[in-house]
Each structure stands twice: as C-alpha cells, then as structure tokens.
Amino acid sequence: NTKACLFDLDGVIVDTAVYHFQAWRRLANELGFDFTEHQNEQLKGISRMESLELILGWGNVTLSEEEKVAWATRKNAWYLDLVMQMTPDEVLKGVPEFLTSLRADNIKIALGSASKNSKLILERINMLDYFDAIIDGNNITKGKPDPQVFLMGAEATDCKPEECVVFEDAVAGVQAGKAGGMKVIGVGSADILNEADFVIAGFEEMTIDRLF
Ligand code: B16
Ligand code: MG
C-alpha cells in the first residue's frame, strides 16, 4: 500500500537541466573546449563533482583538486544566477495538480534529489510547501544509483520502502529506487528508463490509482 511518493527534482518537478547545461558549457568554453546536449544527458542525476570529472574527461583537461573545487564553485555561481531568474510557470505540466491530489489522499510527499540547491529552486518555483521532507545533496554521502537518498526519504516520512513510490527521470535514479526496494515510475522515455515499473511521459497522464 502506497503511503509516500518520493520525487526527484531535476527532470521530474522542473527542468533545471537546461540551466546546468548552460553553466557547465560556460565552464568548458572557458577551459577551451565544448560539449553537446547529447553528452549533457549523462550528467542528469549525477552529483556536481562527478559531473565535473566527466566534463573534464571530455575536454582532456587535468586539474588539481584545488582547481576542481574552484571551477565547481564558479559553475555553481553561474547556475544560481540562472536559478534566481526562474519563475513558477516553469513547473512541469501536471505536477501541482498531482501533488495536490496526493495531499488530499494523505499520501506523504518527499524530495529525493542530488542537488545541493534544491530548497532554493523549490522556493523560486513556489513548490516548497508541498513537501513533508526534503532529502538532497546536502544530506547524502552516496549518490544515485545508491538507494541512500530514497531510503532517507522513506525514513523521513515514516514509511517502509515497499510503501514508497519513486518518480525519476534518470537511469541512475531509477536504479536507486529499485535498489531501495521501491516501486519506481519513470518520467520520460520508456526505452531509456526500462528498469522502471512503468514510464509516464509527463504528469498529465498520472493519477493516484496508478500508484497501487
Ligand atoms: P547541484 P536531481 C541533479 O538533480 C541534476 O540532475 C544533476 O545534473 C546535478 O549535477 C545534481 O542534481 C547536483 O546539482 O550542482 O545543484 O548540487 O535530478 O537529482 O534532482
Ligand atoms: Mg533528475
């Protein structure tokens, strides 16, 4: 029986990936190379420092640990400039309606995101009040596909893993939910998210009865 829904942020609630891409691309350009939107797909659900490692690999750039931290800090400042311009109309279609229906049925709502900026983003898009618990990059020691972020979400909502349903747009996130023993609904393409229990293209097609 489902008692809590655990939501990823980027790609599920809102599309911050476009802003991550802009900021990471600026970093790459300043280091003398570029990368594509296709490559950017690989960064979804992955932590900031893991993303940086992948990008530096694409550009064959070697940096010291100190330089890596400095570039990651710069990228985050550029990213936050873009986040500060976000507005509530960027919330993905059908999300507020679905979360409202969960609240009406007393189903708990938690965030399970790799981002360290999740609260700020939820504030900007006016979605913070929907969440009973927020587990994000500030709370976790192991990134997706490790189940830690979702297991902490289950605990924070007083639910067993089998009582939770995870919503994820990234392969690593789907794997994290399954590793935690949860039902996982993929958001995006069924070809890519084939490890999910089922996949929706967006929340317009999601109803409460599909949780059970
Ligand atoms: P930050 P999610 C993830 O969010 C993004 O998909 C990923 O591209 C990003 O690197 C990661 O958050 C960390 O974000 O730099 O803001 O801490 O999909 O787990 O909500
Ligand atoms: Mg995501």
From TrEMBL:
Entry annotated with the keyword Metal-binding: yes
Annotated InterPro entries: B-phosphoglucomutase_hydrolase, Beta-PGM, HAD-like_sf, HAD-like_SPP, HAD-SF_hydro_IA, HAD_sf, PGP-like_dom2
One BP annotation, GO: carbohydrate metabolic process
Domain of life: Bacteria
Stated family: Belongs to the HAD-like hydrolase superfamily. CbbY/CbbZ/Gph/YieH family.
Site residues (Important for catalytic activity and assists the phosphoryl transfer reaction to Asp8 by balancing charge and orienting the reacting groups), renumbered to this chain: 113, 144
Keyword Magnesium appears in the UniProt entry: yes
Binding site for substrate: 8-10, 24, 43-48, 51, 75, 113-117, 144
Active site: 8 (proton donor/acceptor), 10 (proton donor/acceptor)
Cofactor(s) listed: Mg(2+)
Binding note for cofactor: Binds 2 magnesium ions per subunit.
Residues annotated as binding Mg(2+): 8, 10, 168-169
GO terms of molecular function: beta-phosphoglucomutase activity; magnesium ion binding; sugar-phosphatase activity
NCBIfam families for the chain: bPGM, HAD-SF-IA-v3, PGMB-YQAB-SF
The protein, known as: Beta-phosphoglucomutase
